[in-house]
Amino acid sequence: MKVQHVLLGLVVAAALAVRLWQLGDVPTVFWHDECDNTVNVIQILNGKGPGLFGLDWKPQPALAVHILAATVATVGPSITAVRLPSAILSALALVPFFLLARRAVGATSALLAAVLLAANVGYLHFSRAG
Question: Looking at the whole model, is its pTM more than 0.85?
Answer without folding.
Answer: yes
